[in-house]
Amino acid sequence: MMKKTWIVALIFIQLPLFAQKNYKEALSMAQTKMKEKDYREAAPLLEKAIKFKPKIAQNYYLKGYCLVELSKHTEAIESLDQAIKLDAKQWRYFKKRGDAYYNAKLYDKSLPDYTKAIDLETSKKNDTLFQYRADTYMNLNKYQEAIDDYDKAIAINNKNKQLYFDRGYMYNKLGNKEKGCPDYQKAYEMGLENAKSEAYEMMQCDWAKPKVKEKDNSPVAISDVQVDPFTGAIFISKGLTYEKYEITPKSGGFVTSSIFGYDEDFVLKVDKPRGFNLNNTDAHVGVGFSVYQGNTSLGEAEDLFKEIGPLEQEMLNNLKITLSFPKSEANSDLLLKARFYDKLSNAEILVNMPFTMAEKTAKSNNIRTSTSVLGNGINTKSTFEITVGKIEFLMAGKNVGTLKVNQNYVLSLSEKKNLGNVVNYRYSFVDAQTGERVLSDGKKEVLAMAKGLKTDLPIKTPSKKGNYIVWLEVKESKDLNRIWTMTYPVVVE
Q1: Rounded distance, CA 121 to CA 100, Å?
Q2: pLDDT digits over 362-385, tens only?
Q3: Which residues pair with 400 in a beta bridge?
Q4: Rounded distance between C-alpha atoms, residue 246 and residue 268, angstroms
Q5: Taking the CB of residue 53, how many other CB atoms lie within 10 A of it?
Q6: How would you classify the pairing of strands 348-358 and 259-261?
Q7: What is the DSSP letter of 87?
Q8: Which of 99-103, 124-128, 421-425, 442-446 has the lowest mean pLDDT?
Q9: Is 43 within 8 Å of 33 (Cβ atoms)?
């Protein structure tokens, strides 16, 4: 009987020793995980330690610390409540609960906790406590109280650039430019890059005013000339490049001719323009246009982007103008001149497009586009699946390899599909070096009879030698919506 009692007593003696060992292991592992910033693993280990010894305030504090870092604010507050209940003399407990309240945007509750932490912290040299209470005052719109605490934090630690930035922001809220601007400048000089832009945007501080480059008035040569097959619009690049252009109705579909309806919006756009002189990372971009009838201006806008200001480089994915024209004289010949330009140089993209006003815009939802199918550099666009398999310049019925100035030729279209026998057409030569449009006898619409699978169109070459782009528009006479267009680079000798 005595032996049995001895065994039971031994078991009761060993149980506390077993619990003590497991408690130390859990706490040690938790502290290791916290040093590694692995708070997700540390929190359950601390909960385990608490179960072994539920009266130790430090363990609730450590668990609350982990939960704050894991953004589990409600659970963190509960754990820190318990830590403070067990020991209300530790400033760190109040500071961490203040953090939990602050992160939960309960600023009216974080404020007394930070104040209590400041009272309990004996060294009075902890700038972070004053900084966090100042941040709380900021969120409670108590700007002067925030400034007072930032003053105290800076007196302790004048190497913290964020303190100057935040105090500058508080002075901005109070409208005190005299004190706010130097704080922003100090933060910027200490390495806070965004302090400069905010100083100018918020307070127009003189020191932060962006320095705009002087405009470079050096002449810029033409680097590229392109002609849109459907509209005949000429795109002239001087120092600026782009990936592609678009002329589209705002209502959808594709513009198929230089005929635009009254008061119908259309968009003129260039994608990914490059070559702007940058002021830091900003491009000073201008977009303008004018409309002429003969030599008379019907309206113009010098810079549609005037109120927008500089654009960051990554915003330059596309530039566009949305236009619509009021009703004018029937079949009046008009000219649109548009430009996308660099305000810091003479670089620009010019667009010259003759057009005619009508009741409705010529457009289609289904077009056919080909590039360099008929020959190097030849582009075609058409509606209703119209195709032309072969083009030739003829003189006296024979193919001509070289075009001569001021000569009459026949432009022969053959191997056609879906193009009727009777067509009308117009054409022009565009100087590939200057972008100047040279109109020949085909400016007016002329009927041409198809011969079998061929359609022969009389044209005349310019009177000056050079590289040109031939623009041709062919329409069926009975259905003007059936269109085949082409741009063709040629040399005239």
Answers
A1: 19
A2: 888 888 887 667 778 899 999 988
A3: none
A4: 6
A5: 15
A6: parallel
A7: -
A8: 442-446
A9: no
Q: State how far the Cα of 164 lies from the Cα of 134, in Å rounded to an integer.
A: 12
User: Which amino acid would we find at residue 242?
Assistant: Y
Distance in angstroms (rounded) separating the CA atoms of residues 39 and 295: 76
Count CA atoms within 13 Å of residue 456 on its CB side: 13
User: Residue 285 corresponds to which tokens in the numbers above?
Assistant: 């971009």
Q: For strand 408-417 and strand 398-399, is the pairing parallel, antiparallel, or unpaired?
A: unpaired
The tokens for 294 are 């003969």
Q: Which residues contact 437 (CB under 8 A, 6 or more apart)?
A: 234, 352, 354, 428, 429, 430, 431
The whole model's pTM is what?
Answer: 0.60
Query: What is the C-alpha to C-alpha distance for residues 28 and 49, in angstroms, rounded to an integer?
Result: 10
Q: Per-residue pLDDT for 213 more than 90?
A: no
The two structure tokens encoding residue 92: 């760190």
Residue 280: strand pairing partners:
none
- 205-208's contacts with Cβ under 8 Å and 24+ in sequence apart are 205/177, 205/180, 205/181, 206/181, 207/181, 208/181, 208/184
Structure-block tokens of residue 48: 């385990």
User: 439-468 as b/e, with b when 16 or more CB fall inside 10 Å?
Assistant: ebebeeeeebebeeeebbbebebbeeebeb
